[in-house]
Write a structure and sequence with these properties.
269 residues; mainly alpha; 10 helices; 78% helix; globular
Length: 269
């Protein structure tokens, strides 16, 4: 990696970290396409490096939420029961693609997969911004205040949806925050702070396990990850402070439209 690319990675890590601290989402959705298109990193390396970056940047936020008691550990546990095995399957799928096709074809396949996932994530963020409150599962017989044990049906839903999100993360590094947040919003009538805290805590563990799997397959550029973290860690801290004063919904909407635009451009070539 050239010195110019290293500086560019640090600056982009700062920007992405700021957005993650500000909105709680957008890390993998922005980082992986950037590494592939701007830095020219192969798709498996871009995904694995992003997982290492995501783990460290999200760790600080998850610890803060845990100290504030805004994490529902039972929900995070059942999400992880589905997402972690599925993310490892996603990594194996990526390895199969890399081993079955030539590098140019691998890039074409992964650009299509990642671009489609970006459009999905951007659309889910728009849905999150405008989702009617009445869509939450608060009808009689489905109420759960987050304080008692979950029903068997809710645990099953949580594991299954977690598996869907986890597979996307293992295959593309995208969705650990945005997709999981939508699942939590639809399934649980929890406070916004607990939704965010549970989401980021689960995403930290998911990113760690997936990142270790990518390390085992040699998909991590540690020098690049270090350059990203030099900017990303202060970016998260500044974004977290700025979130107290800046409006969240307009920023999420802008981020969502940006993801859809980037995904569409990648699909159209």
């Amino acid at each position: 990696m050239s010195l110019v690319s290293e500086y560019a990675a640090t600056l982009f890590g700062l920007l992405v970290g700021f957005l993650v601290g500000l909105t709680g989402v957008g890390g993998g959705s922005l980082m992986t396409p950037f590494l592939m298109t701007a830095v020219g990193v192969p798709a498996p390396t871009a995904i694995g490096t992003d997982m290492v970056y995501a783990t460290i940047t999200k760790l600080t936020g998850s610890l803060q939420h845990y100290r504030q008691r805004s994490v529902n550990l039972e929900v995070a546990l059942f999400l992880g029961m589905g997402s972690i095995p599925a993310s490892l399957l996603g990594v194996q799928t990526l390895e199969w693609i890399e081993g079955s096709f030539d590098p140019n074809r691998v890039r074409e396949i992964m650009v299509t997969v990642i671009a489609t996932t970006l459009v999905l994530v951007g659309s889910s963020l728009i849905f999150r911004v405008f989702m009617p409150e009445s869509w939450r599962l608060r009808r009689e017989g489905k109420v759960w205040d987050g304080k008692g044990p979950m029903s068997r049906r809710r645990r099953t839903y949580t594991v299954l949806f977690g598996a869907f999100g986890g597979y996307l993360v293992g295959l593309t590094s995208i969705g650990s925050g945005s997709v999981m947040a939508i699942i939590l919003l639809l399934l649980y009538p929890l406070s916004p702070a607990v939704i965010v805290g549970t989401d980021i805590t689960h995403a930290t563990v998911l990113s760690l396990v997936t990142g270790l799997s990518h390390m085992a397959h040699g998909n991590v550029d540690f020098r690049l990850a270090g350059a990203l973290l030099v900017g990303g860690i202060p970016g998260v801290l500044v974004g977290s402070v700025a979130a107290r004063w800046l409006p969240g919904k307009p920023l999420r909407l802008i981020l969502a439209l940006t993801l859809i635009f980037v995904g569409a451009r990648m699909l159209l070539g």
